[in-house]
């Protein structure tokens, strides 16, 4: 499940902690572990001490190793594509549409898990406003509200599908099937660790690849 919660760049750690408790802990319980980037707000003493008190293990992504939080990066990219595609078609400020985008994303089929994120968490399909008219619930909340919500969700889902197809197409173009024979020479990428001297050079000036 993905949660899209709007915050400000100036949000303090105390505000983030309150959001975490209100939006995550209250709905999903205390997490076993959290992987986050090395933002100073997450590496300060307060955040680790709070998670330690809750019994949550903190894990931080490592520089030059994006695979540690690759799923998070892909989700952010998808959200950016959705916002870019919908912001001019939906009225109002972009942050007012985050709940609908979160809803559409979590109820969108994902081939990697062969179901929607909602089904993984709750073990059942989600009833969406798109289906309300079939069971006669439209009168309960008003025709206009349901119609607007239904149209917006359809629009977001379509843009989400287009964004995913675009990302897949881009990845497929860059993907090449490599075949190697015994004795072939290949380049081996070296991670530029700080303070490590390789081949007489230190840090970023050291060779990135060796044969």
From TrEMBL:
PANTHER family: CHROMO DOMAIN-CONTAINING PROTEIN-RELATED (PTHR45835:SF99), YALI0A06105P (PTHR45835). Residues 1-125 form the Integrase catalytic domain. The keyword Membrane does not apply. GO terms for biological process: DNA integration. The keyword Cytoplasm does not apply. Keywords: Nucleotidyltransferase, RNA-directed DNA polymerase, Transferase. InterPro entries: Integrase_cat-core, RNaseH-like_sf, RNaseH_sf. This is Reverse transcriptase. It comes from Cucumis melo var. makuwa. One of its GO terms (molecular function) is RNA-directed DNA polymerase activity.
